[in-house]
Amino acid sequence: MAKNKRQYVCQNCGAVASRWQGQCADCGEWNTLIEEAGETAFSAKHDLRSGGRAFALEPLDAAAALPRRMASGLAELDRALGGGFVAGSASLIGGDPGIGKSTLLLQAAGRLALDGARVAYISGEEAAAQVRLRAQRLGLGSAPVGLASATSVRDILATLGAGPPPDLLIIDSIQTMHSDVIESAPGTVSQVRASAQELIRFAKSSDCALVLVGHVTKDGSLAGPRVLEHMVDTVLAFEGERSHQYRILRAVKNRFGGTDEIGVFAMQDTGLAEVANPSSLFLTARDAAVPGAVVFPALEGTRPVLVEVQALTVRLASGATPRRAVVGWDSGRLAMILAVLEARCGLALGNAEVYLNVAGGYRLTDPAADLAVAAALVSAFSEQPVAADCVLFGEVALSGEIRPVAHAPLRLREAAKLGFSQAWTPARLAPADGIRLRGFDRLGELVDQMLSRG
Fold this sequence. Notes:
Blueprint: E1 2-10, E2 16-17, E3 33-42, E4 69-70, H1 75-81, E5 85-86, E6 90-95, H2 101-114, E7 119-123, H3 128-137, E8 146-149, H4 153-161, E9 168-172, H5 189-206, E10 209-214, H6 227-231, E11 234-239, E12 246-254, E13 262-268, E14 271-274, H7 279-282, E15 293-300, E16 303-315, E17 324-327, H8 331-345, E18 352-358, H9 370-382, E19 390-392, E20 395-396, E21 402-403, H10 408-417, E22 422-426, E23 436-440, H11 443-451
Parallel strand pairs: 6-10, 6-11, 7-8, 7-9, 9-10, 17-18, 19-22, 22-23
Antiparallel strand pairs: 1-2, 1-3, 4-5, 11-12, 12-13, 13-14, 15-16, 16-18, 20-21
Helix pairs in contact: 8-9, 9-11
């Protein structure tokens, strides 16, 4: 006999609990457990080996055609997607409110529609008139985009199934969609999962490229169940600060292309403009060398981006508690670099306040930034500037050893192209055209050179 189970689902991480509690045991958030209808439990056991429909297994070496792609007309978006929208694929794009998700997708939809593609834009957050006004501001008011404001998945699928399926379907956003087969409010974990599953099934069966817009939590991760990211083929994260002009579209997952690719955009009055040379956004004018400022050639997928790392140290009186402030880098890694400088290189940074900033609001995750951060700290501490035409990269171990990093030739070529003439790197790198290399085996050697010791 079937009986209904009662369950409480966390709306932040999707964890399921058998009873209500104030704090989620998995993610630690408070007041996020909401009662939802659980799965039907059967008291009798069923043998699943009979009653099913048999299917044929295909050989692995069977011929397979490459998926058809549609160029969006935005080169930076196509770069992040791996070459454009793939027919029959499902993509998920998330970002902070107001970052430009809807603007970017409306620009791509308008350009594809003007090129002859069938495009449907379903908005669950705005009225059709609001979307139409935005399109007019972007100069795409005449684009033949099918526009609607709806939240019922059943109504959406019935409408799209009445005619030829669109080449591109945009759902803005998945948290506003609801399925009438689930007894819960829109935006809950079960509703998001069920609505996304129905829409993805339609995209796979109709060879339509589906794009879902997703909300994010206060820590920047995609809201809703984690299974949503597993269901889609591509996950894109739209990053940036409202106080800065740039926006970065980062590929976190991509079944049809490489991951960690980025597309760079600049927010303007007419929408999001592509940035062909991202280094110009993150480098300040470097007419003269400044203590505490060094240039690091970061690597995002296959694209090198030169950013400026800035450091400031302030000596405190004995007994005061020093402060460590970091913007754009991992605070734990900064603590490690400070410990290595003090233990292996003899720099007394324990009683100094340390401030570290990555210019332009860029966020570094590349471990090759260790050497640039260490050099910026030493330069700020000693008031000895690093040459303005020098770039630095290398990973620093706890022993003080400087280890080689991936794609060093690509970083050096980008630095030489932008006018830098020398680089401080790990030892024994192959020579590069147009740029002089100085290699270091240990961090202490670099500190000795900067401080003219030994």
